[in-house]
């Protein structure tokens, strides 16, 4: 049973606000990080667990290791692969200079090694002082999305995006050839718009056993 078919058997739970959407993304990220690193993390403590930057930097180094393994086992690829990890202080305490330095190192790694666009980046205070946790969440999801291309385990949200895209691609291949419509550039500024743009035709997205009905 495909992810879409499975989702159709679950209860429909539309997101009524940006806050609910952010909550769902945080919940998905927390479960993913908990499984990935065998740590006690959930939607309620995810920011506290990440605010020192230590886990973020450790994750960056893990992503870099996975990329290196991928490169050794695969043919040359056009996929953006991180070549360097980051240094960090694992004993840093929240809001301290060391914590800020860790977070800054992770931010620099995202920009230089993963080529995360500025529109999906965050600043140190967005996490440390909770000034803009949405940007932080979007950045972490984008790192996960890009790392999944070279074998890194990804959150459910990313897995479903990929599965839906593949099913749409297969459906398009089965359709009779038609004149290509004129392409219209779409300014996608954040992950919310990306998800809506990618999944508009499918109308359905499942996140942790719940479904989201996307209506026109």
If you had to describe this structure to a student in words, what would you say it looks like?
This protein has helices at 3-8, 18-37, 46-50, 54-73, 97-112, 124-128, 133-148, 156-174, 191-199, and strands spanning 204-207, 210-213. It has 216 residues and is mostly helical. It has a two-stranded antiparallel ribbon. The two termini are 27 Å apart. Residues 1-14, 180-191 and 196-216 have low confidence and may be disordered.
User: Which bin fits the share of residues in helices?
Assistant: 40-55%
Question: How many E strands?
Answer: 2
How much of the sequence lies in strands comes to under 5%
Gyration radius, in Å: 18 Å
Work out the helix count: 9
Mean pLDDT over all positions: 80
Low-confidence region ranges = 1-14, 180-191, 196-216
Secondary-structure-based class equals mainly alpha
Q: State the end-to-end CA separation.
A: 27 Å
Biggest beta sheet summary: 2 strands, antiparallel
């Amino acid at each position: 049973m495909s992810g879409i078919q499975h989702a159709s058997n679950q209860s429909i739970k539309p997101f009524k606000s940006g806050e609910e959407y952010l909550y769902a993304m945080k919940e998905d990220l927390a479960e993913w990080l908990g499984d990935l690193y065998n740590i006690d993390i959930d939607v309620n403590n995810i920011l506290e667990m990440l605010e020192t930057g230590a886990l973020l930097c450790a994750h960056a180094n893990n992503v870099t290791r996975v990329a290196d393994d991928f490169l050794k086992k695969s043919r040359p690829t056009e996929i953006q692969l991180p070549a360097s990890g980051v240094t960090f202080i694992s004993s840093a305490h929240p809001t301290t200079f060391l914590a800020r330095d860790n977070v800054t190192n992770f931010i620099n790694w995202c920009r230089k090694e993963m080529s995360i666009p500025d529109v999906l980046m965050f600043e140190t205070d967005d996490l440390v002082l909770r000034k803009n946790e949405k940007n932080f969440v979007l950045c972490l999801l984008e790192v996960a999305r890009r790392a999944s291309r070279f074998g890194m385990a990804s959150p459910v949200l990313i897995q479903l995006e990929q599965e839906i895209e593949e099913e749409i691609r297969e459906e398009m291949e089965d359709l009779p050839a038609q004149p290509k419509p004129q392409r219209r550039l779409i300014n996608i500024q954040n992950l919310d718009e990306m998800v809506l743009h990618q999944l508009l035709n499918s109308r359905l997205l499942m996140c942790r056993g719940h479904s989201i009905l996307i209506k026109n």
